[in-house]
Specification:
There is one protein chain. The chain is mainly alpha-helical. About 60% of the residues lie in helices and about 0% in strands. It folds into two domains: about 100 residues, Serine Threonine Protein Phosphatase 5, Tetratricopeptide repeat (Alpha Horseshoe); about 55 residues, no CATH class. The chain starts with a helix and ends in a 7-residue tail after the last helix.
Length: about 190
């Protein structure tokens, strides 16, 4: 299988996961595989991406199918590469600034939320390198543990509880969205 065929297969899987409830987490690993392949290809591949801007756009589309705050350092690396291909891509440059702010320990979670219009607070531990290094494994373990659980009203609380337990095994004390936003009704 050629790299282009592998990329096509990866991109199809990324889109499928994005449109499957509860499967976006799988795109963390698929995105990393796709990015490694894309970086190994020249800036232009005739018939696939005929300009550097088209290659940048493909990577941008990949990121649109991921939760960038789950792996902000990786996504920032991809976005920096996109900028090297297409420096004037304004959407990408704005996303870089947003990710840099997300990772900036000098910008509090409250300041970040206010600056970017996020209404739900999140646990600042989600911004750490430690989080990013384990989150794929955590999501995979949660998915396995909850595979027979129906996704009905209230499932988010079951999921968050499972996620807290798994994260605790990795040495991370995490507060769920309901803990961070006690005046918000979820589900």
């Amino acid at each position: 299988m050629t790299d282009i065929e592998k990329l096509s297969k990866l991109f199809r899987a990324i889109v499928r996961n994005y449109h499957t409830f509860g499967a976006v987490w799988k795109n963390m690993e698929l995105g990393k595989q796709a990015f490694r392949l894309m970086k190994g290809l020249p800036p232009v591949v005739e018939g696939e991406f005929d300009t550097q801007e088209e290659k940048a756009t493909l990577l941008h589309q990949m990121l649109e199918h991921m939760n960038e705050t789950s792996t902000p350092r990786f996504c920032l690396e991809v976005r920096e590469y996109i900028r090297s291909l297409y420096p004037d891509y304004e959407d990408n440059n704005e996303a870089i600034a947003r990710l840099q702010d997300y990772l900036d320990p000098g910008l509090s979670m409250e300041e970040y939320c206010a600056k970017y219009g996020r209404h739900l607070k999140f646990d600042p531990v989600e911004r750490t390198r430690q989080w990013e290094e384990v989150i794929y494994r955590v999501e995979k373990e949660c998915d396995k543990a909850l595979k027979d659980e129906h996704h009905y009203m209230g499932f988010c609380f079951i999921y968050w509880s499972a996620k807290q337990k798994v994260l605790k095994r990795y040495g991370i004390d995490w507060r769920s969205p309901s803990e961070m936003n006690p005046h918000v009704m979820f589900d």
